[in-house]
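Tutorial handout. Part one gives the primary structure; part two gives the three-dimensional structure as tokens.
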Amino acid sequence: MKTVNCKRTILVGLTEEGNKFRPSDWAERMCGSLCTFRNRRIYYSPLLRPAIRDGVKCVIVDEDLLIKEPGVHQQIFNFAKTNKLQIIYEE
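Part two.
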């Protein structure tokens, strides 16, 4: 994986070909690895959280994830690469 200096990375729920990625709850499943539960509610980590961008499900990955949870970071980007998801690097 190449190193990019960015504040966050967005994994977009579209393949490189532009097709919508399935299953529809992929972002929530992925972010579940760092979420917590309180009072029967899910609280996503600011390091890894689902979002919707331009009507498409995404996962926002904070740059600190690599430092604090390197194994999770590697797993997330392996998943994105294997499934050919679009990746946006923001500075």
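Part three, for discussion. The chain has three helices and six strands. The longest strand covers residues 8-15.
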